[in-house]
Amino acid sequence: MSDEQVTKKFLYVNRKAPYGTIYALESLEVVLIGAAFEQDVSLAFIGDGVYQLTKGQDTKGIGVKNFSPTYRALGEYDIQKIYVEKESLEARGLTLDDLQHLVYEDEDDDWAEKDAIKLVSAKELGEIMEQQDVVLSF
Amino acid sequence: MSDEQVTKKFLYVNRKAPYGTIYALESLEVVLIGAAFEQDVSLAFIGDGVYQLTKGQDTKGIGVKNFSPTYRALGEYDIQKIYVEKESLEARGLTLDDLQHLVYEDEDDDWAEKDAIKLVSAKELGEIMEQQDVVLSF
Amino acid sequence: MSMLHTVNKSPFNSDGLSSCLQCALAGSSVLLIEDGVYAARRGTQYEALVQEALKDKKIYALQPDLEARGVKSNLIDGIELVDYAGFVDLTTDHDSVQAWL
Amino acid sequence: MSMLHTVNKSPFNSDGLSSCLQCALAGSSVLLIEDGVYAARRGTQYEALVQEALKDKKIYALQPDLEARGVKSNLIDGIELVDYAGFVDLTTDHDSVQAWL
Amino acid sequence: MEFGILVNEGPYQHQAADSAYLFAKAALEKGHKIYRIFFYHDGVNNGTRLTTPPQDDRNIVERWSQLAEEHDIDMVICVAAAQRRGIVDPEEMKRNGKDADNIAPGFRISGLGQLIEAGIKADRLVVFGD
Amino acid sequence: MEFGILVNEGPYQHQAADSAYLFAKAALEKGHKIYRIFFYHDGVNNGTRLTTPPQDDRNIVERWSQLAEEHDIDMVICVAAAQRRGIVDPEEMKRNGKDADNIAPGFRISGLGQLIEAGIKADRLVVFGD
Question: C24-42 pLDDT, tens per residue?
Answer without folding.
Answer: 999 999 999 999 999 999 9
